[in-house]
Protein 1
Amino acid sequence: MSPLQWGLLFSCLGCGIQHGAWAQFPRVCMTLDNLVNKKCCPPLGAEPANICGSQQGRGRCTEVQADTRPWSGPYVLRNQDDREQWPRKFFSQTCKCTGNFAGYNCGDCKFGWTGPNCSRRKAPVVRQNIHSLTSQEREQFLGALDLAKRTIHPDYVITTQHWRGLLGPSGTQPQITNCSIYDFFVWLHYYSVRDTLLGPGRPYKAIDFSHQGPAFVTWHRYHLLWLERDLQRLTGNESFALPYWNFATGRNECDVCTDQLLGAARQDDPTLISGNSRFSSWEIVCDSLEDYNRRVTLCNGTYEGLLRRNQVGRNSEKLPTLKNIQDCLSLRNFDNPPFFQNSTFSFRNALEGFDKADGTLSSQVMSLHNLVHSFLNGTSALPHSAANDPVFVVLHSFTDAIFDEWMKRYKPPADVWPQELAPIGHNRMYNMVPFFPPVTNEELFLTADQLGYSYAIDLPVSVEDMPSWTTALSVVMGTLVVLAGISVLLVFLQYRRLRKGYAPLAGTDLSTTRHTEEA
């Protein structure tokens, strides 16, 4: 698949929804009265008057603030998509939490904080290389994914119709459904890239809230954080951390696609997952884009076939290399105008994979993130369905590790992120779609340790990135090695001279006889 085709697929996603997890909206808010009044300010606990935890000073019900600055890019419509000024098409009033409190009713802490008053820094969980996990850690991770696939989310639901059809034909029946934790992780990704529905068979495809712009890094970071927190609660282990897959091997094989990890290929049909893997029975959701567009509806979580990876269709592609990572990390500019898939010398665009890893643009080349999705092929090759494959989790965890390394190296101020004229959804203060309660891109433009996690990883460093004292030390060490080599050579030559009967000059008795004198 060419970079142009990948870009078009990112722009041309259909509509969809599923069952469970950190779903689109809190179940408690999806009543007819709340939807008509566009208000989601539930009480914390059993006391009805404790709206947003106000009695404990945790928050209050306020008007939703949505970014109104101009955007650029291919989406030129206005007031046609329910993701514009997210989430005001659905709710104009939500809980605004104070301090480090968070959540739809201010009952949680922000990522990275803990304690009854959310006043203590949480010990960071450590995301490890999936190949470094112990057998117990590996089983906990794989088991948690499988359990999340089968567990309905206790707090959230998703909508099965877009905003104009949300109350159903009668105007009195909210169109919502439950969804499994993992399936809604998929649905979140789908919903961020789906088409705008203008009428039967009339989708507007030039829109993407999580790719092809600066929000690529923060959107996927928050996406993983929500899944990680869901799995911590599901397993009862607050130290649970998502692993990462270091895909920079340069090889033409997927070393996590084994039955011990995320599933090998089935022998009789290599596009399916081996029956020896728990993922062989996983069915996918939100894959029938053209059907959703034709019916002007959203994916409702119905299973649509088995998970697939198409090794046969890889066209001899190879995974990225460590040199590609090094080149990407050498790019000092976070992003450059037009803040889209044709930006050059942009760290974000190189990491996403529309540029070459060194920041130059080529319509014939995919790199890094995009290349890995294309390499996996099958379900993973299509942006709307890619998150169905559990490889998505470890792939994006490593992508986030590269982003975190860049943040630590360059320590960028917030204003390197454009406040306006990025594609819709990608301005700095835009609320990321479809996360709820609202959270802006800027709030995730931090190093990972500020959000309660870190990576056990050492990424490659280029000569240009090394501090001056390191370079000077390297020169000194190199000089010492050369001098030591010369000394060894001199000792060896002297040894040879002695073997041939030569005496050292200092030990020779010199004759005082002149050459003109007789002996």
Protein 2
Amino acid sequence: MVMEEGGQRDRGRGTPATAGGDGRQIFKELGDQNLDAICLSTYRTACKLRFIQRRCNLHLVDIYNVIEAVRDAGLNAVELHAGISVIRLENLVSSLFNQLSKRLPTTHTINARESTVLLVEFLLAAIDSEPDSRLTVFSVKAMLSTLCGGKLIDKLRYVFSQVSDSSGVLVQSKFDGFLREALKLPTAVHEGPSFGYTHTLARSCFPQQKRVMLNMFLDVIADPPQCLVWLPLMHRMANVEHVHHPVTCSYCRGNGMTGFRYRCLRCRGYQLCQDCFWRGNASGSHSSQHQMKEHSSWKSPATKLGRALSRTLGCVSSREPPHPIYPEEPERTLNLANIVPTRPLENTSEAMLLSSSAPESSKSLAAAQRMNEEHALIAAYVNRLQSSPSSVDSPSRQDEEHKLIARYTSRLAETDSSGVIPNRSINFDVNKQKRELIAQLECKNREILAEIKCLRAQHDAACQASPEKGTTNPTLLAELRLLRQRKDELEQRMSSLQESRRELMVQLEGLMKLLKAQAAGSSHASPSRPSPSTVRSVGAASPPVHMYPPQDSLAGVGGDVQEAFAQGPRRNLRNDLLVAADSITNTVSSLVKELHSDDVREEEERLLNGKDRAG
């Protein structure tokens, strides 16, 4: 039945199949974009597929929406190489866009019918791009997962789940089939000569690896081979569509750039927008052969300088891996093949699909069908009894009851002979698994609570340490004794320093009094010349003096010393001594000068007296 659906693909498609690729609406709109003027084939292919993606509104659909739509269509239980009809493909795409229109806000609406028609036309054109190709489940999954939006890493993980075995190892034949189906997309937009399929592509992607796991697959596809280089470029183009660069293009002189920005590594200050670079435009001394650097964001000079300094000083952390590291062994999924469907099967085609997906569960499905038939008979019998209560004692009712009893008796006999209850055993197994999981979680929860209680008790015991517990720790006691001893030594040294400071202040006060007395006596001896100390005292008294309350260490010391040390509320002992030493030095020098001047005057008077006597 499935193969017949695949054979009816051309008949179900109708007129669009015979129109050719150029007659379809989406290809006409693609030709109006003039994307063939792009010189680089990689950018040209990515631009074309990005236009298809946006025109069909697939950029609003991620891989998880695709997986959900495939499951709703029942294609997850079908063999990958089984053919499907165009009607079923249309139903799948229609449900995909209908769910999208429900998720979108009211301010952003799409035409689900138009998107469905355009996408189905493009997928069918991609299938027809190669001769002897047919529409299969694998081709639909490969093309939708390649064209949809979302993160590239999620799409690659889904692709690996389709091309790997149950142990998580890549199957080369399945990967070759994925490349065959995915590369039909570039071929459909007339890029087959650059990115067409060949039989050696799958082997060239993993030339030396015999056992390819998920992380290795992601590493290789993240730095893609030549046949898939357009796929990450399409995602990078989607990320920079709204990025603005406040730079003028050196060719078209456009004020600002949107998207990619390209800077020449040879011509200083030469930058091109993406349209000029893709089309090979150049001006001045610049050539299209020069090496260009692609920029996907704009950084100010200050930001560049900061990042350069950070890299120079080693402040930048090491780069993160390009993708998370996933476990090598895949997670074991629940086997849902034996679960009875929630609704009776409407047609035989669905029954054939389910039976082909799980041939080992044919007995369980047969038992489930018998159970559904029995339930339907019972429901019909109950409805008829409710509609005609007068027929309760009729012979026909008794015959029907006998038939139902006979059916149940035969089913019970089959159950006794096989020892398995086909329907309830599933429920028992599921309930048993749930109970075991709940018991494990409760046990784990009890362990966590016990550990938290133990840690809290240890924390309380550490915060409220008793004296007995302290005495049992010799290291702690030794540290406490050392700290107390150090504290006592510091206090004794502080007191001795305070006492020495006091004694020194007293000595300085006496010395200053003695110097003042000698200066006063010398000034009385020669009143015509004021002493420098007097001048200094007068000059010092002229500005306003800010008096501060004496400290405890200067208690009992004269006012002169306090005034000499009253330079601030808090002074260092060393600074105080230096200030006092400077004052004493100045006073002594002035006193020496005064004494010397007195000696000179006395000598002059003796010479004058001697001359008078001689005369």
